[in-house]
Amino acid sequence: KQLHHYQLSLASYNIRNAKGLDEKISYERIAEVIKKLDTDAIAIQEIDSCTNRSEGLFVLEELAKRTGMYPIYAPAIEFDGGKYGIGILCKQKPLSIKHYPLPGEEEKRTLIVAEFDHYIFSCTHLSLTEKDRLSSAKIIYDILKSYKKPVFIGGDWNDTPDSKFIAEMNQNFYLLTDTASHTFPASLPETTIDYIAALKQDKTRINVSKAEVYDAEIESDHRPVKVIIDYDY
Description:
alpha+beta; globular; Deoxyribonuclease I, Chain A; single chain
């Protein structure tokens, strides 16, 4: 197979269901941040679908309409008359989408895997319980290693760069984001819990040309992370 060169931009953003640090719910504000990030795909966490608190609205659809991107949703739990989960917004319609359950003692978790022409992008929001996160690292690797295309994963992993869990992830993934730049809390970030990583694959060479934490200080309780990468596939 002849190798082709690609450039790809990816982001991850825990939007807290569009509720800002000023307690205002604004899909407009979150959509503005997503548009400014201007990535091929963005992993999003904490999204309501048709709940009472969101007045029956499908929040990812609201963001998709405002950004002109394609929505992929995976509910993790039943919540407040509707569902609550994670999603991906992407510029290109995916070729296939799969959902997988992940452990969550305090709240069930999920993984979305979306396949595109020349890459795979997955999204997750991991448990607050360390045992669950460590089991998830193995489950995620077992699922993603079966893909031949370059594989990327973004999400709120609820753990810090010096943790046992990140050490576990580092066995099979390269962290692409700048872990020295903090993501939480948004107003004055003190810690990093949001990441984008690439699966270690024999044939894929990945070069990170840019990694940043975007300065969104009030729109959610997290700041989004973004990477621009080049690779041959």
